[in-house]
């Protein structure tokens, strides 16, 4: 009986740890409708080459991305493979709080 309870507890703990990771999720920049109906970023989204505040570039495209890695509250973004079969390109590290998570079916 103890082994059954222990195995169920272990299984539950493992599934929660796996679910806590955002790797593989689809994300889209947080935005709002602007003047003339165009989308605008809620605030500038900075991309850095490392998972820490460092030299930065500003994200300029409204595209969906996939999360390739996670560290220190930052996520590494990669392009979503499209119809053209272009190779997946790593974009850089951004704060996860600047993005909203999309359903995988909407990641295109």
Automatic annotation (TrEMBL):
Keywords: Signal. The keyword Signal applies. It comes from the Bacteria. Residues 1-19 form the signal peptide. This is Secreted protein. It comes from Undibacterium fentianense.
């Amino acid at each position: 009986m103890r082994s059954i309870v222990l195995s169920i507890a272990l299984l539950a703990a493992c599934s929660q740890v796996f679910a806590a990771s955002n790797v593989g999720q689809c994300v889209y920049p947080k935005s709002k409708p602007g003047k003339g109906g165009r989308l605008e970023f809620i605030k500038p989204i900075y991309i850095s080459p490392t998972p820490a505040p460092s030299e930065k570039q500003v994200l300029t495209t409204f595209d969906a991305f996939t999360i390739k890695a996670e560290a220190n509250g930052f996520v590494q973004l990669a392009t979503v493979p499209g119809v053209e079969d272009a190779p997946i390109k790593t974009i850089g590290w951004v704060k996860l709080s600047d993005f909203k998570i999309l359903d995988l079916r909407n990641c295109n």
